[in-house]
Design a protein that fits this description.
Elements: H1 5-8, E1 24-25, H2 28-31, E2 54-55, E3 61-63, E4 66-67, H3 68-75, E5 79-83, H4 84-100, E6 106-110, H5 117-125, E7 129-132, H6 135-143, E8 151-153, H7 160-169, E9 173-176, H8 179-192, E10 196-203, E11 225-226, H9 231-241, E12 245-251, H10 262-282, E13 288-290, H11 308-321, E14 331-334, H12 338-341, E15 345-356, E16 362-366, H13 375-379, E17 385-387, E18 396-401, E19 410-417, E20 425-429, E21 449-454, E22 457-462, H14 467-470
Parallel strand pairs: 5-21, 6-7, 6-14, 7-8, 8-9, 9-10, 10-11, 10-12, 12-13, 13-14, 16-18
Antiparallel strand pairs: 1-22, 2-3, 3-4, 5-15, 15-16, 15-20, 17-20, 18-19, 21-22
Helix pairs in contact: 4-11, 7-8, 10-11
Bound molecules: ligand LLP.
Ligand LLP binds near residues 214, 253, 293, 379 and 434.
Length: about 475
């Protein structure tokens, strides 16, 4: 087996990011680059591209002031690249809208979209909260020094250990998903002599128009308590009856990659109307209304994401209008994941083969695929791509195939690209959310590095896995006799 040289002998010229966290910065040619221009294919306002996306006169692509080619040569491929300015821009856009609300709303970034220690640190610095769904995400936040009071702990299965950890570390809210979990929460809190701050997860019966696998608001869902047949009321009874549970409010996330504004507003309406019933029937008024995430993003020119500022303004109006005089307007929580990172991310692949099959279909095979982006295989998710350094002329329709041993490992089914050759770098856009987070070592392929780019500098946030890393949990064969 031949191992890449850099794993054994660091190549100083390549800055060897596989072994260290040395920065790769734009070279002089790039620093003095004055003639970059906006890509002619790009439509003004397209979210599909990171906001710092540029193309120079030789059709080389730049993100965060870094050339895609230099990044590929410095860190190897495939490579996840995240544009800092885009992430920050999205955070500020949401924050601006939340600040306009009365009372101001709060954001909890959904860590499931993309989380690593540096990401948690970055969010903490922005004053954002974090939605975690596992002990692993919680541990990452803890190691990053995240403010635990700004954590919402989700998940339809939380183990005894996870619940105990959440309560010991003092997370802000635990979102209870079942009656069994309420019992466990109450018992654990009693044992630790604490009070568990709880939100109840409800399914409001709203079917957002998105892929069935990422719909969650309908009654027939594995998540939460259905707002039907008194199921949600039974959950409230239980929560209010337990001595070590403090019921703070309710949560309902209706799905992901939602383009319409109305489902978000209907969700708030449905919850607020339930709050009204609770007030009338029991004199209980919740402090928190958590509407989850799900704000759609643009993967291709066909996608038309909602205006988040308008959505939040409409939600706020609804919440205010439906709060009885005697009660305080509840705090609105949101949990955007995809909307913060998806469009900030691109994946750089190297082209390893091109072929044309009988019937004339053209394939391009790259050095990544379903191991670093499972979404096309899992959800038929569509992506956009460009070849670095090629003029947008004589476009050919290609199918982009991954390297994994599955016929279904197709990254993009139909994309028009300039003629592609072996050695070209292919840039796939919109890969910042649920790509690294859902990556695997299928076929024992090491996972790519994650590098953040900003103003001509690159900073690795996650190192590329090595072949040695693949073996860290393996134990040697010692026979079974
Ligand atoms: N809050 C809760 C309770 C959630 O279940 C989710 C996503 C979010 C927030 C964040 O949703 P976002 O803003 O990212 O749409 N793997 C799928 C997405 C699954 C989403 C699951 N829950 C994908 O790659 O499309």
């Amino acid at each position: 087996m031949i191992f890449p040289k850099s794993e054994k002998e660091p190549n100083p010229k390549r800055n060897n990011p596989r072994e260290s966290l040395t920065l790769c910065v734009a070279n002089d040619r790039l620093k003095t680059m004055t003639r970059t221009r906006i890509n002619p294919w790009r439509r003004e306002g397209d979210g599909m591209f990171p906001i710092t996306y540029r193309m120079d006169e030789h059709h080389h692509i730049f993100i965060g002031g870094m050339s895609v080619r230099d990044l590929a040569e410095c860190y190897g491929t495939p490579l996840y690249v995240l544009d800092y300015a885009t992430m920050l821009g999205r955070i500020r856009q949401f924050q601006g809208a939340l600040d306009e609300m009365m009372p101001p709303g709060h954001a909890f970034y959904a860590g499931k979209a993309f989380l690593c220690t540096a990401m948690a640190g970055f969010l903490n610095d922005q004053g954002w909260g974090l939605d975690v769904v596992s002990g692993g995400e919680l541990y990452t936040a803890l190691q990053a020094g995240f403010d635990m009071t700004k954590i919402v702990f989700h998940g339809n299965v939380k183990t005894q250990e996870e619940i105990e950890a959440a309560l010991r570390y003092g997370v802000g809210y635990v979102v209870a998903d079942s009656l069994d979990e309420l019992v466990l929460l109450n018992e654990t809190a009693r044992r630790l002599d604490k009070e568990a701050p709880v939100l109840l997860r409800l399914t409001p019966g709203i079917e957002a128009h998105t892929h069935a696998f990422i719909q969650t608001g309908q009654f027939d869902s594995k998540f939460g308590f259905a707002m039907k047949d008194g199921i949600h009321e039974e959950a409230v009874d239980a929560a209010l009856s337990y001595s070590h549970i403090k019921l703070k409010g309710f949560h309902a996330h209706i799905g992901s990659q939602i383009f319409d504004e109305d489902p978000f507003v209907h969700n708030a309406e449905r919850l607020m109307s339930f709050f009204g019933t609770l007030w009338e029937k029991r004199g209980f008024w919740p402090e928190v209304l958590d509407i989850g995430g799900g704000f759609g993003v643009q993967y291709t020119p066909l996608d038309d994401p909602p205006d988040v500022t308008r959505v939040l303004m409409r939600v706020n109006r609804t919440v205010q209008a439906m709060t009885p005089r005697a009660c305080q307007v509840p705090l609105v929580f949101i949990e955007p994941g995809r909307a913060i990172v998806a469009e900030a991310g691109v994946t750089i692949y190297r082209v390893h083969a091109t072929k044309t099959v009988p019937g004339g279909k053209h394939y391009v095979a790259v050095d990544g695929g379903m191991g670093d982006n499972i979404r096309p295989a899992l959800y038929q998710a569509a992506y956009s791509a460009q070849v670095d350094g090629k003029p947008p002329e004589e476009m050919i329709r290609y199918t982009i195939a991954g390297r994994y041993c599955e016929s279904g490992d197709i990254l993009i089914r139909d994309v028009s690209l300039s003629p592609v050759e072996v050695g070209d770098y292919l840039v796939v856009f919109g890969t910042g959310a649920y790509n690294y987070a859902m990556s695997s070592n299928y076929n024992r392929v090491p996972r790519p590095a994650v590098v953040v780019v900003s103003q001509g500098r690159s900073t690795p946030w996650v190192k590329r896995e090595t072949y040695q890393d693949l073996l860290t949990q393996d134990l040697p064969w010692k026979g079974l006799e």
